[in-house]
Amino acid sequence: MLAPISISLASLNITTMAPMLIAIVGALAILCIDLMKEGLHKSFYVMVSLLFLLLDLGAVVDFGNVFLKSGSVLGMFDMMLIDGLSILSQIIIVAGSMLFIPLALTSKRFHEYNYPEYFALFLFMIAGFQFMVASDNLILIFVGLETASLALYTLIALHNRSKSFEAAVKYFTMGALAAGFFAFGSMIFYAITGSVEINQIALALAKDEYVNIGFVLVAVVFLLGAIGFKLSMVPFHTWTPDVYEGSSAALAGYMSIVPKIAGFVVAMRLFEFLVHSGVVWLQVVLYVSVVVTMTASNIWALVQNDVKRMLAYSSISHAGFVMAAILIGTTQANTALFLYWALFSFTNLGAFSMLWVSRQKNLIPGQSSDHPYEKFAGLVKTMPMAAIMIGLFMLSLAGIPPFGLFWGKIYMIGAAVSGGYTVLAIIMALNSAIAAYYYLKLIVFMFMKEPIAEYQKYYLMNASLSLKTIIGIAAIGTIFAVFAVNPLLKVITLFVYNSGY
């Protein structure tokens, strides 16, 4: 008779799940409050969500202090991994979410914010992303991925537009395909190494020289397809413009930031050990994917007539730009990834939030899309401050000094040169120059063309305090990033280097 297995509670180290559990408890609390008292104003649920997000951020920062003192922390049968990568990415996830959620107070037209379930799903989604980045176990990463994705599909569908249901169905269909890819790739890795932990898979592949490289190739292709979908890498990008167009401007901005940082961390854990092992075909695949994603999405953005779709293709290009860090695989490149995405978070969320100055529920006769360039014509004459803010975010996205994203681009290109990828650095610089054209195109419309009367009635002349606050924070982060780059680099380098990346 087998002896019973004894597991102490202390050995599980359940505290490693504290940040995620806080978000989950917050979601359940919102649902319970709604059951006990219906009809509460959405501002109450915004405050509750912010409270739990603040507690979540506090727990992550506390783990950051623990990590700097004693290194990585494992928990729950070593499925949870709290290291520098997970801490940095969770800070971006939670901080970005705290900037997004107050935007629910900015509009009375969008009915999804009146449902308590919206805020509960939002917290469940955050917990899913946190599970993704705080583990190197493929099963837990998959659970986190699906938890976040299912919640996000519903958030998109809740938006009261005819295109929202179409966008949610497209995202769901492509997401289901990506989930299948991820599961199949994980299964192959388990079959050839006997483990679903990325660290153990790396060790097994390094030790066993008789592993069939063909199986490794198939597994990597499936996993690259799954992660490529989440990061909108070409050719898995086709859902992105349609889903962004069907979502509210704020949610589209959020989708361009938070889900992707989770995907970057998973990609970093999965592929960098293979890159460091000298797997040439993976380096070639990543190289081609990065170059094609950057270049093709920029070309598509050039021909867009809708500003939101232009920003969608722009986000794809930025994702390809950042994915170069995983190809380069040095500590400087990984540091550049987090620096770039932290600066990008402020700029892109601000840019998408500014689209709310011209939001409308129904298209006027002859209008083919929600945010045509013509709608912003002469904006400097009707809403000068809005035109200045949009111009600021466009200049930053274009990488014009001294605004925020310029420093991220410079450091990323510097990492490519230092890592021996000089040609890639030149391609990155050329793509930044191409992107400047379509960003400046919007500035030309706002500052050098006359207003079109049909669109002026849709300008939000009196923005709410919450919208002004979020845009103000994004603008401050964009303008004064130059003073924060050096301290940020020191902190990020400390976390990345001590994580072994």
Q: Which SSEs are present, and which pair or pack?
A:
Layout: H1 9-12, H2 18-36, H3 42-70, E1 73-75, E2 80-82, H4 84-100, H5 116-133, H6 138-157, H7 162-193, H8 198-207, H9 213-230, H10 239-246, H11 249-255, H12 258-276, H13 280-302, H14 307-328, H15 331-354, H16 379-382, H17 384-397, H18 404-418, H19 422-448, H20 453-456, H21 465-479, H22 481-498
Antiparallel strand pairs: 1-2
Helix pairs in contact: 2-3, 2-5, 3-4, 3-5, 4-5, 4-12, 4-15, 4-22, 5-6, 5-12, 6-7, 7-9, 7-10, 9-12, 10-14, 11-15, 12-14, 13-14, 13-19, 14-15, 14-19, 15-17, 15-18, 15-21, 15-22, 17-19, 17-21, 18-19
List keywords for this structure.
73% helix; single chain; globular; mainly alpha; two-stranded antiparallel ribbon; 501 residues; 22 helices
Proportion of strand residues: under 5%
The count of β-strands is 2
| Average pLDDT for all residues | 86
Helix run count = 22
**Strand arrangement, largest sheet?**
1-2
Helix content: over 70%
Radius of gyration: 22 Å
**Terminal Cα span:** 46 Å
Low-confidence stretches: none
SSE order, as H and E? HHHEEHHHHHHHHHHHHHHHHHHH
Assign an overall shape: globular
Structural class estimated from helices and strands: mainly alpha
Biggest sheet architecture: 2 strands, antiparallel
